[in-house]
Amino acid sequence: MPKKNQTLGEFIIENQSDFAYSSGELSRLINSIRLAAKVVNHEVNKAGLVDIIGAYGETNVQGEDQQKLDVMANETFIQTLTNREIVCGIASEESDDFITIPGCNNDHRNKYVVLIDPLDGSSNIDVNVSVGTIFSIYRRVTPLGTPVTKEDFLQAGNNQVAAGYIIYGTSTMLVYTTGRGVNGFTLNPALGSWYLSHPEMKFPETGRIYSINEGNYVHFPQGVKDYIKYCQEEKEDRPYTSRYIGSMVSDIHRNMIKGGIFIYPKSSTATNGKLRLLYECNPMAFIVEQAGGKATDGFRRIMDIQPTELHQRIPFFCGSTKMVEKAEEFMAKNER
Ligand code: AHM
Ligand code: MG
């Protein structure tokens, strides 16, 4: 039973025995992530003070502008995990291909791979709106002692052993799951310690918030248009409230606390939507499900989907179970 105000360090040690045959590797890995998160938090917090805001001048593999802090966050997480030789490979939303980490004896004996979106929602940095980091951890599927291959990264979300996000908001929080519920830790910046502030987080079964970029309305599939109209109808518990930050971690974090649905659908201009299956949707789906919510592409459970590409995109519907189910009803009535 998680104890409120316990530090993340204590929590990790206490829960290590939950894993049969645990060698402590996963605990050390989560420790490395909490360290990198503190470094990124420090940089994000001083974004307005020094000349680090604004575009970096390059585009990433998806053709989007990279913000300077995107680059810094990417390097911080990769370097921390590489220096500590804690994983055998890393794939990042900001890098074209995955990285192989051979380990200290060049023996490729570490068993975990990490997939990461180092700074999600980074277009919000220049305007002082919260951003996040998302991570996903899998056990490699290729034999120990050999370099990792793409197969180790292209695993269905079902295989995740842990996933989490860091939200750099009014306070900084690290929320994660290892498949035994979801716990949220808040950073005390004066001490540099994370404290368990949100034990056993639970998605309300239903809610009154819908989060979607309605500016794209005309391009949405009919099922999504119909669901939006349903949300806006004058009924006993409706209209719902519309809340969209444009920073997925923050939108989903709020909905998990208050009850709501987040949708990033496909559209006539983006045939698979915008969000990435491996770096964004799978880890958020794991957290959402562990908190009792639901995550689908409008038809199929996200974590059942077998990925085919590292940077694959997918429509994303997630949140309070009853609300996602209602949206799915509207999708099913219309053509895919
Ligand atoms: P990013 O990884 O380039 O930051 O993009 C992902 C972000 C999500 O956090 C957010 O939900 C979405 O993009 C917002 O996109 P849009 O501006 O199209 O609504
Ligand atoms: Mg992202």
Automatic annotation (TrEMBL):
Q: Where is the protein situated, by its record's location annotation?
A: Cytoplasm
Q: Which reaction does it catalyse?
A: beta-D-fructose 1,6-bisphosphate + H2O = beta-D-fructose 6-phosphate + phosphate
Q: Which residues form the Fructose-1-6-bisphosphatase class 1 C-terminal domain?
A: 204-331
Q: What is its EC number?
A: 3.1.3.11
Secretion signal, residue range per the UniProt entry? none
What cofactor is this protein dependent on? Answer: Mg(2+)
Enumerate the InterPro entries for this protein.
Answer: FBPase_C_dom, FBPase_class-1, FBPase_N, FBPtase, Fructose_bisphosphatase_AS
The record describes how the cofactor is bound as:
Binds 2 magnesium ions per subunit.
The UniProt record gives the binding positions of substrate as 120-123, 213, 244, 274
Q: In its keyword annotation, does this UniProt entry include Metal-binding? A: yes
According to the UniProt record, what class of enzyme is this?
Answer: hydrolase
- Positions contributing to Mg(2+) 2 binding: 117, 120, 280
Outline the extent of the Fructose-1-6-bisphosphatase class I N-terminal domain: 7-199
Give the quaternary structure.
Homotetramer.
- Could you tell me which NCBIfam families the record lists for this protein? PRK09293.1-1, PRK09293.1-3
Protein name in UniProt: Fructose-1,6-bisphosphatase class 1
What gene is behind this protein? fbp
